[in-house]
């Protein structure tokens, strides 16, 4: 889901990308304890997408919310 959201983000389809970006990160975060070291970078990539989406979309308040949330949950992406 996160990768699809990232692809839509790259195409500037922000509204369409939003649910995939958010659900993709949340799904990976819920399973983060089961993600092995070689694949942890995928979680970090997914964690960066919400703030990148909202920055590109011009929604700075939401971008800041996601940056602070990810910092709390992952100790920074």
Could you characterize the architecture of this molecule?
By secondary structure, the protein is mainly α. It has one domain. 77% of the residues lie in helices and 0% in strands. It has 4 helices and no strands. Helix 1 runs antiparallel to helix 2, helix 1 runs parallel beside helix 3 and helix 3 runs antiparallel to helix 4. The chain starts with a helix and ends with a helix. The model has no long low-confidence stretch (mean pLDDT 93).
Structural class by sheet pairing and helices: mainly alpha
Query: What number is the mean pLDDT?
Result: 93
Shape: globular
Describe the main β-sheet briefly. none
Name the helix and strand elements from N-terminus to C-terminus, one letter apiece.
HHHH
How helix-rich are the residues, as a percent range? Answer: over 70%
User: Helical region count?
Assistant: 4
Count of the domains: 1
């Amino acid at each position: 889901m996160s990768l699809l959201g990232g692809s839509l983000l790259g195409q500037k389809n922000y509204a369409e990308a939003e649910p995939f970006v958010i659900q993709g990160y949340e799904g990976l975060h819920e399973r983060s304890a089961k993600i092995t070291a070689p694949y942890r970078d995928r979680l970090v990539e997914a964690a960066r997408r919400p703030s990148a989406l909202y920055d590109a979309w011009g929604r700075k308040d939401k971008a800041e919310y996601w940056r602070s949330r990810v910092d709390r949950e992952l100790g920074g992406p």
